[in-house]
User: Fold this.
Amino acid sequence: MKLKLFIILLSTMYLVGCGFHLRGVTDNQQSSNLKNVSVYLAVADGDDAFHRQLQRELQITETRLLDDVNQADWHLVVLSVKTEKKSVGIDDKGRSNEYEINMKVEFIIGARSALDEKSSANDTDDNRLTFSIRRNVYFDNNDQIGQRNEEINILKTMREELSRRLVSALSISIVK
Assistant:
């Protein structure tokens, strides 16, 4: 009995010590960096689902989203969200059976004063950052409805991961 209790205790300590956490649980330091920070979020081009996901991620960290550009301390401007799907494999009948999905986000993060100085100097290309993610999807031509649902779920997880990366980049920018 004592051995089982010791093993359970040891396993719990190992999981806590290695930094394991559930997906979607934000890092305490990241959350504290963004807590009550005012951010202006603009999504110029792209995916409405990505915009909603990014708003959710920012709300989880208790970031104050403002609609007024001049009142926000930080600006997060998503310039483009592009999703590309291309065939990377074919079956014995010559039909595509494997696809590669690429999602790319181009954005600018900056403090209000830094962005004002950059926009006056017309050097916004220097501020642009890009995150991209790629997934391969096997496509079964006999189960097209199921495969479409799988693709929708993969796109959703890609949006979630990219939005978490953007929130982390914003948190890092605030610390600097």
Remarks:
- The chain has one domain: 26-175.
- The first strand starts at residue 38 and ends at 43.
- The radius of gyration is 21 Å.
- The chain is about 45% helix and 30% strand.
